Amino acid sequence: MTYSDTLASAWAPRVLSILRIVAAFLYIAHGTQKFFGFPGSGAVPPFDLMTLRGASAMLETVGGALLLLGLFTRPVAFILSGHMAFAYFISHAPQGFWPILNRGELAIMFCFVFLYLAAAGGGPWSLDAAFRRGRTA
Questions:
Q1: How far apart are CA 55 and CA 28, in angstroms?
Q2: Section 67-90 average pLDDT
Q3: 81: buried, middle or exposed (CB in 10 Å: 19+, 13-18, 0-12)?
Q4: Local structure of residue 98 (DSSP, 8 states)
Q5: 79-83 — which CB contacts under 8 Å span 24+ positions?
């Protein structure tokens, strides 16, 4: 094993945590935009939680915050992965086959990043890991 392999192996769990944090931060922005108009124009359209848009905003904001903290990472990431698959097939796929043309590439990317997090967990920089360390101490 070379030095670069050892370095990569040592950093892989940390990079997993960084991936989780960055993806969650970007995902939260979609929810806050629907809820508060931020970031964006600041104009908040009429809003009802009992609509697809309302449910999406709730999943993006609350689910994104849980992922950002690394709390309940696996089940939350699994739910959000399904949310993004659903969003793709409801909103983007009817617009055409190619994701780059139907503007669904971000939904697909979130779907598979969240699916990976559901399998891999939140990494060492997560509340899940902190709680595990606390229980074993």
A1: 13
A2: 98
A3: buried
A4: -
A5: 80/27, 80/110, 80/114, 81/110, 81/111, 81/112, 81/114, 81/115, 81/118, 83/56, 83/59
Angular region, 57: left φ>0, alpha ψ -120 to 50, beta rest: alpha
Q: Is the pLDDT confidence value at 74 over 70?
A: yes
What are 9-52's pLDDT values in tens digits? 889 999 999 999 999 999 999 999 988 888 887 677 777 888 99
State the burial class of residue 9 (Cβ atoms within 10 Å of its Cβ: 0-12, 13-18, 19+).
exposed
Reported residue count of the chain is 137
Q: Please report how many Cα atoms fall inside a 13 Å half-sphere around the Cα of residue 5, on the Cβ side.
A: 2
Q: 50: which 2 tokens?
A: 């009992």
Q: Which amino acid is at 29?
A: A
